[in-house]
Amino acid sequence: MRESMEERIAKATAELRATEAAVARTEAELRHASVTVVARDRSVKVTVGPQGELTGLEFLDGRYGNQEAKQLAAAILEAADRGRAQMAQQVVEAFEPLARSIPPVPGADGSSADWERIFGSLFSGGAADPGPYRSRGDRLRDEIDEDAEAERGR
Questions:
Q1: Do residues 150 and 87 make contact, with C-beta atoms less than 8 angstroms apart?
Q2: CA 128, CA 84: separation in Å to the nearest integer?
Q3: Which of 33-42, 56-65, 129-138 has the lowest mean pLDDT?
Q4: Mean pLDDT, residues 8-32 taken together
């Protein structure tokens, strides 16, 4: 037996309300989420909030005291970038099932959320690995080392 238009509308409305409720629950859970990351050189620890904002910064065990300003800045940026990438991954993991559960809309391409467009270069797609940030941090560290060597050679 075929569903009437009213039955289909009622069913779609119920699915929409269930999806809206699930999105609201997920947003509420993420509102209080955070990620804490220690820099690779173990000089700083940063905490990143659910929208990628830096919510905490801690200098560890006096290791930062013997660093030049550029090295300390690089450590902070490296840890913050990794924290933001991990938080982006956490957001994707929370919303991806919801994005997949939405029924296709006539005329739309039917694909899931475009996480790359949402997060830009921060999100490299799928892995919690910081992706492009690893090479950027290494290049930055190399440039800092080169600057320090140049300063000593003067």
A1: no
A2: 10
A3: 129-138
A4: 88
For CA atoms 137, 141, 146, 151, the dihedral sign is positive
The residue to which tokens 């982006």 are assigned: 88
44-63 pLDDT, tens per residue? 999 999 888 999 999 988 77
pLDDT category of residue 105 using cuts at 50, 70 and 90: low
More confident residue, 111 or 70: 70
Count how many residues are written for the chain. Answer: 154
DSSP of the chain: -PPPHHHHHHHHHHHHHHHHHHHHHHHHHHHT--EEEE-TTSSEEEEE-TTS-EEEEEE-TTGGGGS-HHHHHHHHHHHHHHHHHHHHHHHHHHHHHHHHHSPPPTTS------HHHHHGGG--SS-SS-THHHHHHHHHHHHHHHHHHHHHH-
CA distance 66 to 73: 13
Please state whether beta strands 44-48 and 54-59 pair in parallel, antiparallel, or not at all (unpaired): antiparallel
